[in-house]
Automatic annotation (TrEMBL), chain B:
Region of interest (Disordered), residue spans: 334-370
GO cellular component, one term: kinetochore
Free-text function comment from the UniProt entry: As a component of the GATOR2 complex, functions as an activator of the amino acid-sensing branch of the mTORC1 signaling pathway. The GATOR2 complex indirectly activates mTORC1 through the inhibition of the GATOR1 subcomplex. GATOR2 probably acts as an E3 ubiquitin-protein ligase toward GATOR1. In the presence of abundant amino acids, the GATOR2 complex mediates ubiquitination of the NPRL2 core component of the GATOR1 complex, leading to GATOR1 inactivation. In the absence of amino acids, GATOR2 is inhibited, activating the GATOR1 complex.
Entry-linked InterPro entries: Sec13/Seh1_fam (IPR037363), WD40/YVTN_repeat-like_dom_sf (IPR015943), WD40_PAC1 (IPR020472), WD40_repeat_dom_sf (IPR036322), WD40_rpt (IPR001680)
Protein's GO biological process: cell division; chromosome segregation; protein transport
Name of protein: Nucleoporin SEH1
Annotated compartments: Chromosome, Centromere, Kinetochore; Lysosome membrane; Nucleus, Nuclear pore complex
Signal peptide start and end residues: none
PROSITE patterns: WD_REPEATS_2 (PS50082), WD_REPEATS_REGION (PS50294)
GO molecular function: structural molecule activity
Chain's gene name: SEH1L
Species for this entry: Canis lupus familiaris (Dog)
Amino acid sequence: MPPPPTELPGSSGRTGLGRAAMEKMSRVSTALGGGALTGRTMHCHLDAPANAISVCRDAAQVVVAGRSIFKIYAIEDEQFVEKLNLRVGRKPSLNLSCADVVWHQMDENLLATAATNGVVVTWNLGRPSRNKQDQLFTEHKRTVNKVCFHPTEAHVLLSGSQDGFMKCFDLRRKDSVSTFSEECVQLSAASFLCAQCPEAPPQLCKDQHQMRDPGETEVHITGSQTTRCLASCPWPIDHISVRPLPTTPPGRLRGVHATLEASPSGPRAGQSESVRDVQFSIRDYFTFASTFENGNVQLWDIRRPDRCERMFTAHNGPVFCCDWHPEDRGWLATGGRDKMVKVWDMTTHRAKEVHCVQTIASVARVKWRPECRHHLATCSMMVDHNIYVWDVRRPFVPAAMFEEHRDVTTGIAWRHPHDPSFLLSGSKDSTLCQHLFRDASQPVERANPEGLCYGLFGDLAFAAKESLVATESGRKPYAGDRRHPIFFKRKLDPSEPFVGLASSALSVFEIEPGSGSMSWFVDTAERYALAGRPLAELCDHNAKVARELGRNQVAQTWTMLRIIYCSPGLASATNLNHSVGKGSSCGLPLMNSFNLKDMAPGLGSETRLDRSKGDTRSDTVLLDSSATLLTNEDNEETEGSDVPADYLLGDVEGEEDELYLLEPEHAHEQGDVQMAVSVLIVLGERVRKDIDEQTQEHWYTSYIDLLQRFCLWNVSNQVVKLSTSRAISCLNQASTTLHVNCSHCKRPMSSRGWVCDRCHRCASMCAVCHHVVKGLFVWCQGCSHGGHLQHIMKWLEGSSHCPAGCGHLCEYS
Amino acid sequence: MFVARSIAADHKDLIHDVSFDFHGRRMATCSSDQSVKVWDKSESGDWHCTASWKVAVSCRENLQTHSGSVWRVTWAHPEFGQVLASCSFDRTAAVWEEIVGESNDKLRGQSHWVKRTTLVDSRTSVTDVKFAPKHMGLMLATCSADGIVRIYEAPDVMNLSQWSLQHEISCKLSCSCISWNPSSSRAHSPMIAVGSDDSSPNAMAKVQIFEYNENTRKYAKAETLMTVTDPVHDIAFAPNLGRSFHILAIATKDVRIFTLKPVRKELTSSGGPTKFEIHIVAQFDNHNSQVWRVSWNITGTVLASSGDDGCVRLWKANYMDNWKCTGILKGNGSPVNGNSQQGNSNPSLGPSIPNLQNSLNGSSSSRKHS
């Protein structure tokens, strides 16, 4: 497979040597793609926590390195087999405490490790002795975080260290060839223009030569909190941008806080930012990328150690890792502590962020998945032990997840550069794992694609994955839907199966007014009379209300109640149940029959007619078979005639059943709790003792809760007030104390009356009628004058000045 | 009849949950794009997004939402303020409160929400979060993929930033959904139903019911619905309006409705968990596939379910306790068949009501005559 000859503008300056090398490398990797790999998901126990792993180019061996482990394992079909322990010698040397390990991709015998004491070691497996150590470079002062071989050049090794330096080694020599440091890029000029201190002279940077790239328009440096503007302004510099001078109008520089012109003063020797990762570009022979703890990413030309080619701030906080896209596209993925993975297009003049993946923990490692252009694997160094594979086009949900590890995953590597299904990982839990992609759990698949919620008024909110909705409704497209663009977008890239940038359609199904919304409940609650009149009148009134709202069953019930409880013979409480029972047995069949007869024409629609016929039948059967009748199917309550059911749907309310039929089991079956509570209140003592106190309380709380949902506060309070259950009636007794201050002397009113003890004047006088306000008092918060709500409202119609004559323009909201 | 009102939600990925508030005037949505949105209903009935928050937009610490898919969002009772809870793939659940008085937000028609707390006890994805019924105080239950239900309580309802972990219930199975029993009756102990979407081959019962025991002050398993062995995606107790028994809807490969009748206390030995008579009263596979969501109407008489077929189906029982489908709604609002469209094709419904009255009166009078 020859490399795509697409040389993008930014790379056209590369030498012919580079291109030749690329071709060579490409051949090498193709040569590796021989037989298909086999294996299964498996793991093996290591003796110690791993810090890094690296795969041999034959895809059959893996090296595991850690603080106290350095071993090579052979990957067999069923298991890992330890092949070689490279930790030899009696006393453990710090040189063997590995922070990173890399296996050369061209030479099966060549490995390099980065030690925590700053040493870079190379290992030659071809050495005959037990100790395979080859060369030792002790040039770094602190931990070396990363080592990296040149992808095509056998002798070039790159290291990046905590001390802020990157060193390039030629393995044929004893010491480094060149040293790179972030400091080199820092400008030495000490002139600032800080947006926060306009008095500072607009001195502009004179070090024009420091602008490496003439096309570069902006370079960002993130300074530390201690770096301060030299013009003695107190603002710490957290963000510096260096711009080419002639083209930038000075005014623009003043816009943002701490956007400065120029640089920190001089090179900060020894303070340079730690290097977290270095990676040779696969595309450009001489280029490598490095990432820093301050969030920067730099691009270097290996021949130019004096300065970097390009620098940009990639992350907020340390950038722990980077990885070049294996296909020749100039994409660089970076991962940082800010939990993000960003994909940069490096081929343009300015690095352009093309994708951003939000993970759930800081990103310690990132590796592009072979053969899957948009997939990359990540693992975290804290909290999260899982390995995720993301499709960068769907940045929120991982495409796959491997959950094998019990501690932090420290190293991940795809087993073969052309096989997307095998992933190897090492972890602090001292295991080495091989994951098969097909065994991964897929959060996308398990994710719930729909949301559904019933609203208060019977409306339904429904959110569904657009593909679910779209598949069947494709015949009926409708305007204003984003579904179709996405549908087409998916088709643009047929080469790669992609589940689609999923999105959901959200809609609310609203009930048409009058057709079964909950308005009957509100109306009934507001219009029922519950007390203050004789029982017969209450029943009549409520029956009328129910009838007017089209709730005939309920109306019947009220009528029945009136008949039963207001007939002189049946009033005695002692034999109430008995007599009611008798009453029901004679009264109900009649009632039921007329009820059903009338229902059908009343509803008008044909379906209704049919349904009611059926119903009559079934009810007749009921009538014959047993005396237990349910008279109170409440079919107004069902969604009007949109309900296709071929029966009368019942919200069977409870309590009356209990009274008529002496069957408490039927009582609460389907709660029309409104009916139950209303009857309970209206009948009062007559029924109270027949019903369990706890049950009553339950009805009350349920009904009150419902009333409050509909904001029927007054009704709710009335119910609370009328209830006889102690637990309920105390509901409106809590926190009812009102503290009043005298409007004249501003001190608390201690006594109960309307006259202040201290200034002996009436507090809260109405400014309009000059009487004491004993009910609702409104006042202007500006001048504290006010009065009766009605009076003030009337007054404000005519004038906006204070009625007290204080001259204030009163404001009421 | 339903009228569909399509809302441009503008979530960048799947919406996983929608939730109405107590009064039905606000709606919250959450999505895999890691954001939560709050919608308010205007006078005209339109829904306006008044708040949307997400980590990528704002770097302010207190506004940081989840860094993973947000699975669920739920409202607290308004007595505790305008409070939302959400749970996420990022292993956290969060409690949010709306702040009033932010004038420049108000001007733009936006409200301001702050994160009050992050509950970080779970080591795996938190799959559901639900506030307890109001009478229990300000309590919150979460369940997570590692099979643990956690119950938190805010001892001081004025301080939403302090939540103490009260109970950890181990369910042994990866949990996907929970539901509090909403009954406010003193006869009913606090109860939680937990569903699992564990897809491991060993078929175990996927719905467990835990009940609070006053004596031990712990939640103990009261029941296991042995017949439900397929992954459960959603579970919902019906609002209990004075009923003595409980109705539980389950979304699994089909829709199932169970009734749980507490066996009378006198018959059971005191102190132990309540015994229930469990009956399956309905089971529908009309969705022909996975059922994802179930939701009850406010009176607990109509159940709505949604499934992989992209439809919402409404279920209702008649007085014989026969549950039947009473409507099908397509995700885009178009009716599936004539049944659910009856109301539209029959505009005579409105005028028919007075007729009903008349004929009723007439008939009853005729009865008197006869």
